[in-house]
From TrEMBL:
Protein name: Transcriptional regulator
UniProt superkingdom: Bacteria
Region described as Disordered: 1-20, 463-498
Keyword Membrane: yes
The family this protein is said to belong to: Belongs to the LytR/CpsA/Psr (LCP) family.
Ranges of compositional bias, category Polar residues: 1-12
Membrane-spanning segments: 37-56, 63-85, 97-118, 139-159
InterPro entries: LytR/CpsA/Psr_CW_biosynth, LytR_CpsA_psr
Compositionally biased spans, kind Pro residues: 465-476
Pfam families, A to Z: LytR_cpsA_psr (PF03816)
Extent of Low complexity compositional bias: 477-498
Amino acid sequence: MSFSSPKVTRASNRPPVLTNPVRYPESAPAPVRSKRAFLLLLLTLVLPGAAQIVAGNKRLGRLALRCTLTVWALVIAAVVLAVVQRETLLNLFTNPVTSLLIIVVLAAVAVGWAFMFLNTLKIIRPALLAPGMRGLVGGALVVLMVLTSGSLGYGAFLINSGRNAITDIFASGPDMAPVDGRYNFLVMGGDAGADRSGRRPDSIMVVSVDAKTGTSATISIPRNLQNAQFSPKSPLWGVYPDGYNCGDECIINFLYTDVTNNHKDLYPNAADPGAAAMMDAAGGILGLTVQGYVLVDMAGFSSLIDALGGVTINAGGWVPISGDDPNGTGNHLPPTGWIAPGVQKLDGYHALWYARSREWVLEYARSQRQQCIQAAMLKQMDPATVLTKFNSIADAGSKVIESDIPAGQLGSFVSLALKAKGHPLARLTIGPPDFPIEFSTYPDFDVIHQRVKGLLNPVAATPAAPDPAAPAPAPAPGDAGTPGDAAPPAGQAPAPTTDAPVITEKYLQQLAINGDAVMLSALLDNNGTCSAG
């Protein structure tokens, strides 16, 4: 007779082993339960689904883990694209169709991640925790959900804001091709009110960008330039074969209104015939092919500057904020304020006046200041600024900007803009200081074309070897070493002469009240000599 104990042949008849504190926390001491709670939260943060596999619904965990690995694969692919093909990644975010898909994916991941955190809280079973620990775990859960789902949701919101702005501002046409290796865009600033037939661009500028390097140049065209030329390919060639030369009324900024009112049938496929005509005129003047335009409502320009948080420039001279013109004759009341020389951070209101003011100075000083504002905006448009103020920038931009640049090509142009930040911005003004004052009335377009070619294709200068036989030049009066007339030390301004007035805002304002236009013209002559701050 055998007295051996019976063997259990079926494992399913055994009671469950409750010694795994992660899955069965009931019998675990309080410190272990607390550690378990934070461990499960950490797993859900790093690898959503892992907490469910080790302590909850394994089927749900496997599904979530598959989704998590797919998302991580997409993130890795995006990083690789950012390194090897940045333009492709930017195009994905700026294209209206793919950006919508990205928004949907981000929203879905945000909701799914939040659900997994809530399911993890259920697995933690807060009732098993010490009373004080319940609050800590709950607070940690809220913080992690905000950092994860909240960030993803906010990212989807920003992309949607950008998508809406892109749809409002840019066109949905085919991609532009560079001409002679460059993209040339006409940038205009004017009144973009509801009465489009009366719009006259006061600021006219062509931005030329090298399609490979991003090296850029801006060429300002004065609003009063006459006899604008058109190429034989332009629809306006038949109307103005000798140029826009009907006299003083045919300055270039009248062309927009002229075409909008009288010749819009020449541009049947253009959403804005006036802008299309201005592109043809700018191309004929400069000898370039202008592929697209950007039109900025100067009345709303200040909101865009404010959205950027202001713009910093180094103002070369005093700039008046003009008073009202009650009779409409150009005779303004005394200024309501002044923008001082030196480094200034301008808000939207003052940046707009800095770009528009032309009282007591030539038109060309204003063109130079507009170039300064543009260069400063490009310099300060860093990723941190764009990211933190993106929604405000997108909202302001959609209200003040219109363009025919293809939305699907924006990624390429954004990439070029980022490259442009690494190069100096070349400038040319079709007027002083680059051309004589009378050039606007009697322009020589062959000369302009040659200057533009030289600007866009500079020839590297080879320094001449010094001639050892040549005598050293005599020092000029005021040079170091000249007795009795030594130059001031570096960084120290020359001592003012006793008869020169101290230029202050009060002094300038009194001159304006007195109507001393001659003195004001002399004192403000340098207010176009500025630079990006």
